[in-house]
Amino acid sequence: MRTKATLTLLAAFIFSSFITHAKTTLSSEQISALLSSAERPVKDAARDESRQPEKILAFTGVGAGQHVLDFFAGVAGTASYFLKR
After folding, report:
1. Banded pLDDT at 43 (limits 50, 70, 90)
2. For the chain, what percentages of helix, strand and coil (3-state, to nearest 5) are there?
3. How many Cβ atoms are within 10 Å of 61's Cβ, its own excluded?
């Protein structure tokens, strides 16, 4: 089990080294618009205070049209912030 976890983390590290920031990252206004969208589930919006998705989106440097891979995706995880709705 320990070997599997180590290999998973190693793979995540190697693949993350190939990630580049978008040429044009999302502005704070664009992030706010995405998070306040009427299409977003109410349950997701209710979790925003504790999860702080605006900080996650700003930190990642993601931009429009980029492809995003979430290695540790789970139910209602951060991957939902990157979905095009």
Report:
1. confident
2. 55, 0, 45
3. 14
